[in-house]
Specification:
- The structure is a single chain.
- By secondary structure, the protein is mostly helical.
- The protein contains six helices and no strands.
- Helix 5 packs across helix 6.
- It is globular, with a radius of gyration of 12 Å.
- The two termini are 16 Å apart.
- About 9% of the residues have low confidence.
Length: 97
């Protein structure tokens, strides 16, 4: 899935939280992320699956890799517009391991 708009409202809430708090999420468990983003752990897993990952751990690894790439490319971290979200989802699929 490459389109942010295809996620459910709860899945978008979770993804928004994760992307806006990437540095904190790197040290949080899935249960902590679910609690902070006000969704269930099942929602976190469904979000990861819809984005093409086997599980949340794989998604999180990909996000960590993307953070490195983002820093190297000098991307504006505080900009979370729709075009950024599409770019982010595209690269997360691209660097998936």
């Amino acid at each position: 899935m490459e389109d942010y708009s295809l996620l459910s409202d709860k899945e978008r809430e979770a993804l928004d939280f994760i992307l806006k708090h990437k540095k904190e999420v790197a040290y949080m468990s899935m249960r902590e992320v679910a609690g902070q983003s006000h969704v269930s752990t099942a929602t976190i897993n469904r979000m990861a699956h819809k984005l093409g990952y086997m599980n949340y751990v794989e998604f999180k690894r990909s996000l960590d890799s993307l953070e490195i790439i983002s820093c190297l490319n000098g991307l504006e971290e505080d900009y979370y517009g729709d075009s950024y979200m599409r770019w982010l989802l595209f690269y997360m699929k691209l660097i998936k391991f």
